[in-house]
Design goal:
The protein is mainly α and 186 residues long. It has ten helices and no strands.
């Protein structure tokens, strides 16, 4: 074989291998970038079934906070506020300083129309974490709905100061702006 022909064959082989490698890499990276399909389980589709499964877990490990919190969330979503509150109260019995349990219980009590109890529970969330932006926002909302705009303004300003980029911090800023608009339109 002539030397120039040898070089052409080797060059062709090198190009073919390079192309195959690039194709392989493209395939691998495009599969890695594709989101995994969301798997729906029977438990996710059936809240009553999920509650039964969680109750079994709770029997194995009584007072388990994540299980109780999830049960409270499901019961709340089903409109069973008393049951949701019961789960949250159990968490609080086991962990009195659990700010998230106090916050969620405060939300449920507010929905039930028990405003003073909602304020008390939400203030307990703040006692556990003074910069809990969701608790600060919620207290502002409760006071605004009760007509106490000065207290609402105070809580919302503190929420914005605590975490201006969070959802609750942004909502607090918007609520403060609405208070200002309402005051200036009078």
């Amino acid at each position: 074989m002539k030397p120039w022909r040898n070089k052409r064959v080797l060059l062709g082989l090198l190009l073919a291998l390079t192309g195959a490698g690039a194709l392989f890499l493209l395939r691998v990276t495009s599969q890695a970038d594709a989101p995994a399909p969301v798997r729906q389980t029977a438990v996710q589709d059936n809240p009553d079934h999920e509650l039964k499964e969680l109750a079994v877990q709770l029997q194995r490990k009584p007072g388990h906070t994540p299980v109780l919190m999830r049960m409270a969330q499901i019961e709340h979503d089903l409109g069973k506020l008393a049951e949701a509150a019961g789960h949250l109260r159990e968490v609080i019995r086991n962990q009195p300083a659990n700010a998230d349990a106090h916050l969620e219980l405060g939300r449920i009590l507010y929905e039930k129309g028990e405003w003073s109890e909602a304020i008390a529970e939400t203030e307990k969330a703040l006692a556990a974490n003074p910069k809990h932006v969701d608790a600060l926002y919620n207290l502002g909302a409760i006071y605004a709905n009760a007509g106490n705009t000065e207290r609402a303004r105070s809580y919302w300003k503190t929420a914005v100061d605590a975490d201006p980029q969070s959802d609750s911090g942004k909502k607090a800023r918007q609520s403060l702006a609405r208070l200002l608009e309402a005051k200036s339109s009078r």
